[in-house]
Amino acid sequence: MSKLLLFIDDFLIFPYSVNMDLIEIKNITKKDIPLHYREDFSCLVLFNDTAQSRQIEIPVEFSLESNAWGKKTVEIFLKKSIDYPVLPLKKSIREYILALDKERKIR
Q: E strand or H helix at 22, and its extent?
C-alpha cells in the first residue's frame, strides 16, 4: 500500500517539476468595446517547454481593467487546452502583460 502511495505522489509531483518559460507575447490585437476602464485583447503566447525541447504557441484572450484608484487587474483566458498546470502559466502571462502595460507597449 505504501509503495502505491509513493508512486502516486511521485507521479503527481513530476508534472510540476517540468519548466515552461514564457518567451514572448505576439500579435496583440485590441478588441473594440465601449467601456473606458476595460480593454480586451487577443494574442499568441509563446512558451519554451524545456522537458520536450520545443516551443508551444497558445492563443490567449485577456482583459486589462483599471479600478477607480488606478490599480490594474488582468483576466486571462486560454483558448487551447494544454497538458500543463494552468496557474503558473497564467501567472507568468499576467506578469508579462503588466510589464508591457507599464512600458505602454500594449496599445
A: strand 20-31
Name the domain count of the chain.
Answer: 1
Question: Global pTM?
Answer: 0.79
CA distance 20 to 53: 10
Place of cell 502511495: 5
Q: What is the DSSP letter of 12?
A: H
C-beta separation of 18 from 50 below 8 A: yes
Give phi and psi for 84, each to the nearest 5. -160, 150
Percent helix, percent strand, percent coil in the chain, to nearest 5: 30, 40, 30
Residue 11 covered by a domain:
no
67 within some domain: yes
The grid coordinates listed for 84 are 500543463
pLDDT tens-place string over residues 43-73: 999 999 888 888 999 999 999 999 989 899 9
Inter-residue contact 94 to 102 (CB < 8 Å): no
